[in-house]
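batch job 7 of whatever, protein = Enolase-phosphatase E1
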Amino acid sequence: MNFQDILFPYIKENVKEYLQTHWEEEECQQDVNLLRKQAEDDSHLDGAVPIPAASGNGADDLQQTIQAVVDNVCWQMSLDRKTTALKQLQGHMWKAAFTAGRMKAEFFEDVVPAVRKWREAGMKVYIYSSGSVEAQKLLFGHSTEGNILELVDGHFDTKIGHKVESESYRKIANSIGCSTNNILFLTDVTLEASAAEEAAVHVAVVVRPGNAGLTDDEKAYYSLISSFSELCLPSST
């Protein structure tokens, strides 16, 4: 499931309705207050969208405040910002949507059978994503295959480091408790593949519909797969 294609558009399309529905709730007010503080910090930036405090003068004033929050969220997302305030609201919105069954994570059909097979062979499976650990758990907990969190031994996000930095992969290996050359990293981004290789991690580049194209040199250099079923991994036992 792709954060860019499904999760983020959901925020833009539903943030106004979400705020109107949950406005009186303490969690929502905490989110708005954090966004307002962020907006104050951003006031010097070009195009920054302020969020005025609601004066309490009726429904029109409330709608103006909600619209200001919506505009601020869309502005931050258009710049691909990752502020704590924005991520907190997004996380709460995704949690509400998944819990209510409005969203389900959809995986390529080869993924879950392959992961089950790897685990049966004694291997461990970890997720490393630019999406937060909380968002990862929502996806794996609410998929079209049901709750498949049991198939994942651990989760990592950019708190351990960015995916294009080789040191991140060393930290992950250290956290897992194994050497980097005992790890196979699957990615569709060659900059990540290069960083992982630099840390002596094994890499396979996954070619899927809609992914960025690869250069001829990249195709010749990297091990390419179009399905997890193509991987022949040694048993760990």
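notes: The domain at 110-230 is CATH 3.40.50.1000 (Rossmann fold).
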